[in-house]
Design goal:
Rossmann fold, disordered C terminus, binds adenosine monophosphate
Length: 261
Amino acid sequence: MRLILLGPPGAGKGTQAQHLVANYGIIQLSTGDMLRAAVKAGTPVGRQAADIMARGALVPDEIVVEIVAQRIEQPDARKGFILDGFPRTVPQAQALDRLLAERGLALDAVIELKVDEDALVRRIESRVAAMTARGEPLRDDDSPEVLHRRLAAYRAQTAPLIAYYRRHGTLRTVDGMAPIEEVAAAIAKVVADERKANPAPRVGTPKSKRTAKPPAKPKIGAKTARKARAGAARRAGAARKSARRVRKSAALGPRTRNRRR
Ligand code: AMP
């Protein structure tokens, strides 16, 4: 099973991905976690990404696409995966389509966690305030200002993916403002429905193309069909006649043919 969880920062994608990991035994691929690990390890990718992430902007597409391409090659991704935080731009989604198609794979569903952004901001601001009050360390990008920038990046660059996946026929929307367990149940229902509709593992063509019926043959009436058969018979008769003529003139030879003319 291959799923995407789509939604703004703070919508609960990570929490819901954990539920899916526990229930379906597939892995969670969070590009945010992978990038944070790269920053911590001081790899070249990490050094490139550190400032961008701290600002709340998006890391260049080539970098994240390469990270995902390498990760889905790992043996533990063979059974399936949940993409959390990727794709975040239309070019990333297109690159993912290509990556999957090259491997004969396809997505099962893209699950959008629909949330009210104002409520989200209030939720995160109060969480940050509570953590600060308790003296707990915050992530570099956990300040309200950075959150506003991340939401702006989501609106401008990631939200267009909703229309993109709606067109692909893979988009499913659940209410992300409901309590965690209810959201998890709604997602489980999406997965169950998807499995019922498509019991075989998804390989090859994307859903929109897979469900499409083969083009119907044009229908013709009985009269047209009779005419077409008569025409074909006439043409076959004429072809046989002309073949006989060619055989006969070849047998007579060039002189005879000249004399006859
Ligand atoms: P997240 O934990 O998913 O909210 O990601 C944290 C930060 O990592 C984001 O604010 C971006 O700077 C960066 N990031 C994660 N995933 C992507 C992605 N798919 N494309 C670009 N930047 C990303």
